[in-house]
Design brief:
Keywords: Signal. InterPro entries: Multihaem_cyt_sf, Paired_CXXCH_1. This protein is about 25% helix and about 10% strand. By secondary structure, the protein is α+β, with helices and mostly antiparallel strands. The protein has four domains: about 70 residues, no CATH class; about 100 residues; about 100 residues, no CATH class; about 110 residues, no CATH class. Strands 19-20-21 form a three-stranded antiparallel sheet, with no helix packed on it.
């Protein structure tokens, strides 16, 4: 035992006698600080074996010989680091450890396994979460740099002119990675006001969220915080548009950031609508396949021709069936009364069904006899518009359907023919009748033929 101690003492004396005051390779001997030399990334003075750049010897006896602390640092706290590194803490926002001059709360003084004298390599989360609350870093949806532990991708670890120690202002910090987004937004004619005027964090949580796309709230709640008129409307409607209630909500129809199309739609209005209403499996029971219904049709309802589905349907919700913008009877038979047909009459002449005789409110007349009035105002069996007309498209004229409307298991054919001053039809509900605006048909005489 005494022999071993003597051997160590003798070796140390030789090392101390041969080492110059500014060269400290002798510190990394097997008997002393060999573990430091084995670190992956060494502090530059350590790498250069210049221990005396930071340490100064105060006593002749080495600590291993029981002489107490014979070395001490040449300065304390940040003052030591500032012997080589520029002083920090002058900017608007300073990281707590930097403000306290406690560089060693993050950095190792001699060396570390990771870069920058940190004990972490690519994943910095373990280091940062030693102080910061980690609850928000365990969400279902994580921002990419957070999930990878790349905290310094967005934050400056020492000081910043921006709040939250960001490396730049929020928008620039985000667009530094989202270059494709920045390029597309710059070329877009329509930009969502929050995207144009507010920081990205107005809608997104920069770390993580329980909601998709790291949103601050689930949709549509997030959107309705600003769109108060839509919020108020939706609270009173009977029929909500299904996409609002499904995953994606507002984002199913709208581009949340920018667009080339009015209303922040990703495509033109009709293309967006037919994205869902263009197949045979939408809903239970399935809704009509509008794409199939429109394909190849010669006569299109004017709003459909212009691709304006929203002219008749409210894209968010409505008090009326099929999210129509106004009242329209659901039954095949519905005699006219005030308000019952306001949906159709919001575009068509409001007096269309008010007078039994007219020369101006409709061209569907026999002389002055208003044949719209005859068909719809009938108190016992007034027929709705769908009895003769297709709401979207048809192969006939005036949107009169050739196949006719569903009537139970049957479709009533109209067999409508148009003439220069009138026309005729021979549907399943009556024999063939003609009408002529200039030379009215006398139906009493016609019955005797």
């Amino acid at each position: 035992m005494r022999c071993d101690l003597f051997t160590t003492y003798f070796s140390l004396c030789v090392v101390l006698a041969t080492a110059s005051p500014a060269h400290a390779g002798s510190c990394f001997t097997a008997a002393c600080h060999k573990a430091i030399a084995d670190l992956k990334n060494l502090h530059q003075p350590v790498k250069e074996e210049d221990c005396l750049a930071c340490h100064v010897r105060r006593a002749p006896t080495h600590p291993i010989l029981g002489g107490g602390k014979s070395f001490e640092l040449i300065a304390k706290g940040a003052k030591l680091c500032e012997q080589c590194h520029p002083a920090m803490g002058q900017k608007k926002v300073v990281h707590g450890p930097v403000k306290d001059g406690n560089c060693l709360s993050c950095h190792k003084p001699h060396g570390a396994q990771g870069p920058f004298l940190l004990d972490v390599e690519e994943d910095q989360a373990a280091l940062c979460l030693g102080c910061h609350d980690n609850a928000r870093f365990k969400s279902n949806f994580m921002h990419g740099p957070v999930a990878a532990g790349a905290c310094t991708k967005c934050h400056n670890p020492h000081e910043s002119s921006e709040k939250s120690l960001l490396a730049g202002n929020i928008r620039d910090t985000c667009l530094k990675c989202h270059e494709d987004f920045a390029k597309a937004m710059g070329a877009a004619p329509i930009v969502h006001p929050p995207v144009k005027d507010d920081p990205c964090t107005a809608c997104h949580n920069p770390h993580g969220s329980p909601f998709a796309h790291i949103l601050n709230k689930k949709m549509p709640d997030l959107c309705l915080e600003c769109h108060e008129a839509v919020d108020k409307k939706l609270k009173g409607v009977k029929t909500l548009h299904k996409p609002l209630q499904e995953q994606g909500s507002c984002g199913n129809c709208h581009s949340p950031h920018f667009s080339k199309v009015k209303g922040l739609l990703p495509y033109d209005e009709q293309t967006v609508c037919l994205g869902c209403h263009g197949n045979d499996s939408l809903g239970k029971p399935p809704l009509s396949n509008m794409k199939k219904e429109l394909d190849g049709k010669k006569d299109l309802h004017e709003p459909v021709k212009k691709g304006q589905c929203g002219k008749c349907h409210d894209p968010h919700g409505s008090e009326f069936a099929k999210i129509l913008k106004g009242p329209y009877p659901g039954d095949f038979y519905a005699p006219f009364k005030d308000g019952a047909y306001d949906f159709c009459l919001s575009c068509h002449d409001k007096n269309l069904l008010r007078f039994p005789e007219t020369t101006i409110y409709t061209r569907f007349r026999n002389g002055k006899q208003n044949l719209h009035y005859v068909h719809v105002v009938n108190k016992r069996k007034g027929r709705t518009c769908r009895a003769c007309h297709e709401p979207h498209a048809g192969n006939g004229q005036k949107l009169v359907g050739n196949e006719g409307p569903p009537f139970g298991d049957w479709k009533i054919p109209s067999r409508f023919e148009i003439a220069p001053a009138g026309g005729s039809c021979a549907p399943g509900c009556h024999r063939k009748f003609r009408y002529d605006r200039e030379h009215p048909v006398d139906y009493n005489l016609d019955d005797k033929k």
